[in-house]
Specification:
heterodimer; A: alpha+beta; PH-domain like; 2 domains; 3-stranded mixed β-sheet; 11 helices; B: 14 helices; 69% helix
């Protein structure tokens, strides 16, 4: 090439053994880069020669070509500021990746592969984790489930008891409430017999105005006072109860723990919470969680339909009470966020329930007397019993 | 002028920052977009790019720093950390479920273990970064036991919390001394000369204004409430203690508490830049490498400027994103119109809300990283000045690169780092 006068120019050289700054002359030879101590032309001493193949570009500010040697433990560095000399060296050393095309290709590959990995993790979380949880659940001893239920119960009772009623939070303890309690026992007993679970159910009605019920792992079910008020027939209440029994029978408490743990691992640890970007992961987690609970709720609905048919009640009643509760709640409200809510949309649920329920001639699960007794399982409290009232 | 321009060597002790904000904005915005696309897997490459930029644009005595870490090293460290932290979390959860000890004990032991591991990780991560920092062909180094540091840090931070932050200056001084004592540039040993007492005296007015109102409120409440009567009432009636408090001392207690809390929060917000300026100056001035000392001319007004500028950027950003998100939700509701229960409408609204949320968090964080973190780095560098810089000319190389396990652990535990 230009063997006659190889390009040369000033540079700064650090030999890697000391921090001493050496002003040198660099000569871009045919096969290697020659580092010469500066002196009069012709009197320069050769300090080192670096083959082009072993050159490596190191990170540097703009306008500086900083070179090191590949695979070298010694951190010798050469810094070239003159643009023409830098260009000449880049021309000769393909390893320096002039223009950064190779680096960009590599980076694109990283982005594509990372994207693929993220997509794969989402699919795993959406389908793999629920399937895995279902396979693991049969191997989790019931004793663990009871323990989990007790632990949750300790926390949740305080949270549910917003009015701080304490001992008076549960209904069916006062003498006037005993008939209601007996009726509840009768209703729950019918369902429990039909369900034939490997452990006992424990149904408690509590003083809460919400039309809701909640099942804990291990068989404890809290039914809100408000739900009994909203129910217009014993079978409607039984339908919701059967739905909650479905959660217990499917061991959804354990399922939730397993799925949440798996999700935390994939979307808490693997995808980590880097500065600011945690938001994406939280968003993905929210969507996945709601997809889990939609499936769990749909399964509990199907269980309710089945159990009500077995017990001789009306399987459609669950749909009827769901519709009433949803109608009362949603009037005039923005419904935009249902994707993120725990329960599948009511319309779809009711349609699924009606489709699954076979036509029959149901007999109400409680007679009129028992039903009216159950309606009064929560006797009004004396005025001074609520803790939040001022005490003077 | 470039670093290799040998004709006019800059003064030996001069410290400069060569980078510019526009380039850093581009780096950050591109990185944030790729983070979203890869659910954060890109963070190892992003962090490496950011460090390369900051290091190589920081110039000391005419020579810039160089970051030699690789993204694949961070990835490897992270995978190793997952292999350690995954089983550890599982063991703690299993123990909590199976052992018959009170839940609190297991949780406390687990928490303690994780805090220790977090401090261990931070120390090792610092070692990774230092051994990947090269200056004039010689690397920085950190030795010393990370477990010893973890125990030391746990004890000092406990003291700082127990004393409501009064011990914070000595905690900082002591931990900085530990870190710098084990830090070196080649064979030039580091040390830290900042004094806890000095930081305490400078920070005391801030502490009085921020924590003072709360302490005052507690004392005032102590006088207003008849404690023995309150105890009696609590014993009789196990219901709402707040209601009983109001019944005993009158509703005024809540006004006192709210006023104290309000004063404390306002003071904290107004004084935070002052706090940041004081600690930054104190830290920089305390750094030593052999005979090399550092001075900082960082002014408090400059730091206030940084935070004011952040508000100026982030508030309009938040308003704009929220407005766009709101309009989109409204429009999608209108478009889908009558068919309100449809899955499509749900999907739309959900997607818009999630996107808005991600945009707000990621955007605000990107703005913070550029307008505050980057600006503080640049300011701190440009206001620093070395004396005794001649000692930097004859440092012998020593030390070897460390693994990225610490970075990975810090990442997996969520204690920062990357």
């Amino acid at each position: 090439m230009d063997a006659a006068t190889p390009p040369r120019g000033p540079a700064v050289y650090f030999d890697g053994t000391s921090s001493a700054r050496n002003d040198v002359v660099v000569e871009a030879g045919a096969t290697d880069l020659r580092i010469l101590s500066s002196g009069r032309p012709g009197h320069e001493r050769l300090l080192d020669a670096w083959a082009y193949a072993e050159l490596q570009r190191m990170s540097a500010p703009e306008g500086v070509l900083r070179l090191g040697r590949r695979g070298e433990t010694l951190l010798a560095r050469l810094e070239i500021g003159a643009p023409e000399l830098a260009a000449a060296i880049e021309d000769r050393a393909a390893a320096l990746d002039r223009g950064g095309a190779a680096e960009r290709r590599l980076r694109r590959k990283v982005v594509v592969l990372s994207f693929a990995a993220a997509a794969s993790l989402i699919v795993t979380a959406a389908f793999g984790l629920p399937a895995l949880a279902s396979r693991i659940i049969p191997f989790v001893p019931l004793a663990v489930e009871h323990k989990l239920g007790d632990a949750i119960d300790n926390n949740i009772r305080g949270a549910l008891d917003a009015q701080h009623l304490g001992a008076r939070f549960a209904c069916g303890t006062a003498p006037s409430e005993m008939a209601g309690r007996a009726a509840l026992g009768k209703l729950a007993g019918k369902l429990e017999t039909a369900a034939a679970l490997p452990f006992a159910l424990h149904v408690v009605v509590v003083r809460r105005a919400e039309p809701n019920a909640i099942a804990l792992p291990g068989g404890r079910i809290y039914v809100d006072d408000g739900l009994i008020a909203a129910a217009q027939s014993p079978d409607e209440l039984a339908g919701v109860l059967a739905h909650e029994i479905g959660h217990v029978a499917h061991r959804d408490g354990t399922r939730t723990v397993l799925q949440t743990a798996g999700l935390s691992f994939l979307f808490g640890m693997m995808l980590g919470d880097f500065v600011g970007g945690g938001a994406v992961v939280i968003a993905a987690r929210t969507v996945l969680k709601s997809s889990y609970s939609r499936r769990v709720e749909a399964a509990a609905d199907a269980y309710s339909v089945d159990l009500m048919a077995k017990a001789g009640g009306d399987p459609h009643a669950l749909g009827v009470i769901l519709k009433r509760i949803a109608g009362g709640k949603n009037e005039g409200r923005n419904e935009g966020m249902k994707l993120l809510l725990d329960h599948p949309e009511t319309k779809g649920r009711i349609a699924a329930i009606d489709a699954a329920a076979v036509a029959g001639t149901p007999v109400p699960l409680l007679d009129v007397a028992d039903w009216s007794a159950l309606k009064q399982i929560c006797a009004p409290l004396p005025a001074n019993a609520t803790g939040s009232a001022p005490v003077h | 002028m470039t670093t290799a321009d040998a004709s006019v060597p800059p003064p030996a002790g001069a410290v400069r920052f060569l980078g510019n904000e526009a380039a850093y904005w581009r780096l950050r915005i591109k990185g944030a977009g790729l983070l979203v696309l890869t659910l954060g897997i890109y963070r190892f490459w992003f962090a490496t790019d950011v460090r390369c930029y900051l290091w190589s644009n920081t110039e000391i005595g005419g020579e810039t720093l160089e970051y030699t870490g690789l993204a694949t090293e961070l990835l490897g460290g992270f995978l190793l950390a997952i292999a350690i932290v995954g089983p550890l979390y599982t063991a703690i959860a299993t123990a909590a479920l199976t052992l018959d000890t009170a839940d609190g004990a297991i949780a406390a032991i687990g928490f303690l273990l994780l805090v220790l591991l977090g401090q261990f990780a931070l120390y090792r991560a610092r070692r990774y970064r230092l051994t990947r920092t090269v200056f004039r062909g010689v690397r920085f180094d950190q030795h010393g036991s990370a477990w010893r540091y973890a125990v030391y840090a746990l004890l000092w931070w406990t003291l700082a919390v127990v004393t409501l932050g009064l011990a914070y200056p000595w905690t900082q001084a002591s931990l900085q001394r530990f870190k710098m004592r084990h830090t070196g540039y080649g064979d030039l040993p580091g040390s830290f000369a900042g004094s806890g007492t000095e930081l305490f005296l400078r920070g005391l007015p801030i502490w009085l204004l921020v924590v003072g109102p709360i302490v005052f409120a507690f004392v005032a409440l102590g006088r207003m409430v008849d404690w023995s009567a309150l105890n009696g009432m609590m014993a009789e009636d196990e219901s709402d203690p707040l209601a009983l408090l109001a019944a005993n001392a009158g509703i005024e207690v809540f006004f006192v508490a709210a006023a104290a809390l309000g004063a404390s929060v306002v003071a904290a917000v107004l004084l935070y830049p002052l706090f940041a300026a004081i600690t930054m100056r104190w830290w920089i001035c305390g750094l030593r490498f052999g005979a090399v000392t550092v001075r900082s001319r960082l002014s408090t007004a400059q730091v206030y400027g940084v935070y004011l500028r952040y508000l100026l950027y982030v508030l309009p950003f938040l308003v704009a994103v929220t407005a766009v998100g709101g309009v989109l939700v409204f429009l999608s509701g209108r478009l889908i119109g009558s068919n309100r229960d449809s899955m499509l409408a749900e999907l739309f609204a959900g997607a818009i809300s999630l996107t808005t949320y991600v945009a707000i968090v990621l955007g605000a964080s990107t703005i913070y990283q550029v307008v505050v973190t980057f600006a503080m780095w640049r300011l701190s560098v440009q206001t620093a000045e070395l004396s005794g810089a001649a000692a930097l000319d004859s440092v012998r190389a020593s030390g070897a690169p460390d693994s990225a396990l610490g970075e990975g652990l810090a990442d997996a535990l969520g204690v920062g780092g990357i």
